[in-house]
Structures are given as C-alpha cells and as structure tokens.
Design a protein that fits this description.
The chain is α+β, with helices and mostly antiparallel strands. It contains four helices and nine strands; from the N terminus they run ααββββββββααβ. Helix 3 (about 115-125) packs across helix 4 (about 130-155). The protein is globular.
Length: about 160
Amino acid sequence: MSAMNYENLMHVVQSLNTEDAFRIRIDHFQWRTLANYISPQDFRAGDHLILEGDRDRTVYFLEQGSVQLYPGVSNPGGRVMVLRPGAVLGEIGLFRDGPQVVNAEAMTPVVAWALRLPRFEEMVLRAPALAVEVMRAAGGVVVARARASLHRQGSSGPSMTVY
C-alpha cells in the first residue's frame, strides 16, 4: 500500500462521530502531505498494536477493523474500550515520554496507519502548521477520553465503551 492510498483513511476519520473522534481540520492537500508521514500496517486478530510497558510513541489511525484497549496491571481501574475505523490510539505518546499503561489488541484483521515519533518530529520541521493541527486534534482525543474516564468513575455504568 502506498502513501497515495490514504483516501479511505481520510474518509473514515472524517466520518467518525464519537466524543473522542480525531477532529483534524485539514484539507485534501494537507491530507496528502500527512500521508507522506504515516505508513499503513496490517494486523491480524489477536495482534497487539500497543503493549503495556513499551516506550513506543507511535500514534495509530484505524482505517479498518476493531481494536480493544484494555488496562494493564499499572492501570487496574481502567475499562475496556472498543475502537472502530476512524479512531486514533497511542495519541498520548505525542504528549508524554513514558511507558504505555494500556494494551491495544486487534479484535479483527486491522489496517492502521502509523505515525512514528521520528516522522512526527520531521513533520514539525517541514510542515509545522500540519504538525500543530495533528497535536491539537490528538489533544482533543486525550481530553475527551479523560473526561469520559472521570465521568465513569462517578457512575456505575457499563464496563465497556465503544468508540
């Protein structure tokens, strides 16, 4: 798959309508530029995209399939979240350097586009306005998920959230 095959990713990201959606405000030309910094990866059901304790700071944009996020031993009160196409995961890696505190496992075959930290740092230098917009949208995801977590702590709702 080449960087030119990003159109489906663009469509699913733009059409996801959840509280924690990655609401990036860029045009088609900027999507094409972003596609130069991300690379598609295929995962089989049961593969891990993120493992607790890893220091990988990759952000994944989910194009196809479903991924479950579940707490690791360092986050025992966390809840299971199911992410569907258009969702982003690993976004916290743009903001903090530290070990992962969750696990992300493919529930079905998955296509996810990876934005690795060195490529993001290159984007900061070569396309700073785009990098700022990626950070803004990722920050929105972090805030939405933190709010949802705080809200759930105050209620005894269901043990799984689907995004």
